[in-house]
Amino acid sequence: LDELDRQTLCLCLTHTHTPFLTCFNSYLPVCVSGATGSGSSLIHVVRKDEDIYSPILRKLFNESHHIFVGLQTIREDLPSKNKKPQFVSISKSYRSVIRACMEELQQVAVSTQDAELATQYGNQVSILLAIELIWNLCEVLFIDAVPAGSLLLHLLDWVRLHKADVDEKAREVLQSESPVEHHGYWDVVVSYVLQGRLEEARQMLAKQAAQQYADKNMYKLMDNLLSKMPVYNPGSIHTLTEFDVKWRHWHEEVDRCLQDKSFASNVHLELICKILVGDEDTLLEHKELLSTWYHFLVTRLLFAHPTIKPTELHYYAQSCMAMFLDSRSAPETLDSILLAAFDFDIHQVIKDCSIALNNWWFVAHLTDLLDHCKLLQSHNLHFGSNLREFLLLEYASGLFNHHSLWQLAVDYFDHCPEFGRVYLELHIERVPLDTERKALKVLRICEQRQMPEQVRSICKIMAKRALRNNRLGSALSWSIRAKDAAFATLISERFLQDYCTRGTFSDLDLIDNLGPAMLLSDRLTFLVKYHEFHKLYGEKCFTEAAKLLLSLITAKIAPRSFWMTLLTDALPLLEQKEVSQTHPHLSLGLYDLTVICVFWSFQEEDIELTKVELLRLALARNLAKAIVKEGTVDA
Amino acid sequence: MFVARSIAADHKDLIHDVSYDFHGRRMATCSSDQSVKVWDKSENGEWHCTASWKTHSGSVWRVTWAHPEFGQVLASCSFDRTAAVWEEIVGESNDKQRGQSHWIKRTTLVDSRTSVTDVKFAPKHMGLMLTTCSADGVVRIYEAPDVMNLSQWSLQHEISCKLSCSCISWNPSSSRAHPPMIAVGSDDSNVTYGGKVQIYEYNENTRKYAKAETLMTVTDAVHDIAFAPNLGRSFHVLAIATKDVRIFKLVPMRKESTSTGPTKFEVQIVAQFDNHNSQVWRVSWNITSTLLASSGDDGCVRLWKANYMDNWKCTGILKGDGSPLTGSSGQPTAMSTVVGSSVQTSQSVLNGTSAGRIGKRTPFAPPLRQLTSSKIYQHPAYY
Between chains, do B370 and A34 touch, taking CB under 8 Å as contact? Predict the structure, then answer.
């Protein structure tokens, strides 16, 4: 035995839910048990680090849920050209939610004292940055699907949005004592040019020009060139071809300045001129300012081929990436994803994002939006809808792990036509029913969606739990909701037993207000009616009480075990003047039945003799009275 | 990132089984120390032992929870040839304060003449039914006709499997299209009867269970078996823990209206993974059958997932203490899956810390383990 490796691994996967993605990693509560040789056994419960469930991320899930539901309810019958602006707007909403979340996380990352937490937040911020970058590009290329001309403008916006440090640097430079002497001055100017922000470049250069009397003419020339660069205006009456012609003229003019060595004596202006003419080597010399190959790509297109068509993008993207990246370093995942996007290979983008990020939130929402834009159907209808649903199911399944976010998941399942319902059924019955309130919430969801089996099951579980804890009233109302006649019978019996031992009822309000629900089981009906009998008796409505008692015995819904009690209750009634004198028939009827009951009772073994004696006495007296009455009152 | 919390189990011997209850808030463990322990998860996520008691006079092999509709009920099975049903009694108030609860034995099932190797409750739509399997190859199905009286169980079926049984699994499907179905795994070393997994199906007409299928391709000892949740599909998925991890698809073939025998199935192997490079002891599905977990003698837990094209691959590896295995890859070895695609090993720059994700696997020899482990039952010379 000692030779055996005592590591026995027993695995029990929590039946709870599939991996939940919080910060885009799997949450997987798995219980792993091991016994070590030293004799002390350990159980290891694995779960996702829940500290990442920060309130900030939760806001992301909540707000994106809102957008998602809105997207699903866009009317299908509108023509697609009306829908495109809506889809773009929705895409922008998603992106702004990401940005908001990112900014909040950034703030917390900066302000926290805990170094480890700061790193965590920092990581989340960089993931979100990447996500927004990808999403934005997908919006430009796939959702907005802008044609040549506008394409470059959108790509410029895209690059500018993701290169915020230029503005920071500019601020720093401008706020210094002498901006033109600041060491970062020319970097800012060049950066502006690289991003096509020529107006701002001109303003910066004006400061320099004001101080440079010697090169005044050169600065004037540069300013002129910068101001004249044609920018495509999508709304103008001029066609793309006309724009192209104008742009080529300008480009030739810039080139002439270079050839003429107009800026030769000023290294900075010469550099800017080379950039304006789109010289690749010059651009590549400024890798730190560009910092990414896609910035390089957009800049290169801006100054070499601004009328680029969407279909031509991938060729330039490939070559730019190759030129920019070190031949030694392999492209990273983000690069491949962007490249796939420039290649218009939507499926590759989704696939790479799913794998790389292991982030269901992102791919689920993006794919859903792309599917609404009918972009996934170009491959294969079945395939496309399967992918969307697959991702949404994964994402929503993960949400179910969370104690409050699970409610969002319900809406996602609702919009998955093939498996949404069965997933919901499986998940919702496993939601821990910690409180009545939570149970009611879960029930409402099931009832709204006609899930009778889940409703029944949840109610049964609650009823059983209440019964175990001796909360009869709660148990009864749950079993009524479960429409569980057998259980209702059982609980009613317990109530009646309680009455027998204690002489009082509990949960009177509940029993009084059951209404038609009391018909669920005979025993329950009896319980309600019996209590009613007691109430009538207490209010001295003896006639009504007697009538009720009579009907209880007649209708045979009184359990045998209770007959003795009923007869004992009947005793005083038989004595009541009201009954015996004004309603002799009633009295006689009672008499008849009580005789029968007493007769039956003799067959039971545990009858109390004194009680029986009393009854016989009362019956005899009553009968005598009744006979006398019957005789005297004229019928 | 994964976080593993360790709990001192305080079992005095090997733990053989651990089982979550339906909602994942309670856990039961059983051990060779002959006891069962129940653990409750508090609101802050801490696990506390709320009960610990001696259940058998031999090693307890398995423990399982009944559906909460039937109350707080456990079943255990043991080397002592018995299975037992336990119910939690709401204790005295001072017990509650101490966080302790009591479990009382409702019944002992003594029909088996050998070690009882597995005990499972049938799906709740079948009522309150308990199933055991024994080393002598008999599967017994019991029913409690009155679900309020857990002391009364009647033996409804006895299925003779002819091979020593090690594990059972019920098909959870409650669809009317699927008659009750149970899979039985065997760790018998007998080579004459080739297939070590048998599928039995209930026949409405004969009111008996009849063998529907034997998986002939599974010839090595089977340690665990698990039907996946059904999801309203027409076919069934079954995971098997044997010398490797296998996933089978059972597609019912159309029955002739006159046919009275059990359903015929087309058996397809969906995936086969030998990454554990050793005996696989347990397999377990998540509730939507999208994730399968396996544990093996290599001391690791592996998680398997299918993509939307139904290709299965490894999606995570955990060490025995629950921490992720870093610096190792999830690449399947030479015998890769039938339809599986290779595992991605990219460490994304986007993901920051990569704990819990796929890494590169360093090959290592499985720990020295004799074939005769505590899990393979040799009939002892004495009891």
Answer: no
pLDDT digits (tens, 9 = 90+) for B214-234: 999 999 999 999 999 988 888
Q: Which residues of A touch B6 (CB under 8 A)?
A: 42-45
A401-438 tens-digit pLDDT? 777 889 999 999 999 999 999 999 999 999 999 899 99
Q: Tell whether B374 is within 8 A of chain A (Cβ).
A: yes
What is each CA distance from B274 to A12, A446, A546, A603, B108, in whole angstroms?
A: 20, 42, 79, 72, 39
Residue B211 has pLDDT above 80, yes or no: yes
pLDDT in tens, B162-194: 999 999 999 999 888 889 999 999 998 877 777
Q: How many CA atoms lie within 13 A of B296 on its CB side?
A: 27
A positions 340-379 inside 8 Å of B (CB): 355-358
- Give the integer Cα–Cα distance in Å for A185 and A195: 16
B322-374 pLDDT, tens digit per residue, is: 677 764 333 222 221 221 121 222 222 222 222 222 222 222 222 322 222 23
Residue of A447 and B96 predicted with greater confidence: A447
Interface of A with B in 308-327 (CB under 8 A): none
Q: Looking at chain A, how many residues does it have?
A: 635
Query: Using alpha carbons only, how large is chain A's radius of gyration in Å?
Result: 41
The CATH code belonging to domain B164-325 is 2.130.10.10
In which residue are the tokens 């910068």 written?
A226
Question: Which residues of chain B make contact with A357, given a CB cutoff of 8 A?
Answer: 348, 350-351
- The pair of three-digit structure tokens given for residue A265, joined into one six-digit string: 């004596």
Cβ contacts (< 8 Å) between A124 and chain B: which residues? 352
Contact A595, A619 (CB under 8 A): yes
Interface with chain B: mutation pick from A4, A5, A44, highest number of B CBs within 10 Å: A44
ipTM at complex level: 0.83
Tell whether B53 lies on the interface with A, counting CB pairs under 8 A.
no
The helix or strand, by DSSP H or E, that contains position A597, with its residue range, turns out to be helix A584-603
Using a CB-CB cut-off of 8 Å, the residues of chain B touching A34 are: 15, 320-321
Partnered with residue B134 across adjacent β-strands are B116
The region, left, alpha or beta by phi > 0 then psi within -120 to 50, assigned to residue A623 is alpha
Nearest-10 crossing angle of helices A80-111, A360-372? 160
Among B18, B232, B320, select the one facing A31 at the smallest CB separation: B18
Mapping DSSP to helix (H, G, I), strand (E, B) and coil, where does residue B34 land?
coil
Q: Which of residues 68-87 of B touch A (CB under 8 A)?
A: 68-72
* Contacting B residues, span 9-38, partner chain A, CB-CB under 8 Å: 9-20, 22-25, 27, 29, 31
Q: Which of A403, A356, A285 is closest to A131 using CA atoms?
A: A356
Query: B144 CB contacts (<8 Å, ≥6 apart)?
Result: B127, B128, B129, B130, B150, B152, B153
The sign of the dihedral angle between the CA atoms of A138, A142, A145, A149 is: positive
Please give the structure tokens belonging to residue A31. 């219980």
Measuring CA to CA, which residue among A318, A299, A281, A309 is closest to residue A158? A299
- pLDDT > 70 fraction of chain A, expressed in percent and rounded: 80
Confirm or reject contact between A388 and chain B (CB < 8 A).
no
CB-CB neighbors (< 8 A) of B74 in chain A: none
Judged by CB atoms closer than 8 Å, whether chains meet at A28 and B369 is answered as: no
pLDDT of residue B296: 84
Give the domain ranges of chain B: 164-325
How do B47-54 and B60-65 pair as beta strands? unpaired
Closest C-alpha to B225, from B172, B195, B280, B184:
B184
Nearest to B25 among A24, A47, A432 (CB): A432
Which residues in chain A show pLDDT less than 70?
Answer: 1-41, 46-53, 77, 80-81, 328, 358-359, 377-385, 571, 574-619, 622-623, 625-635
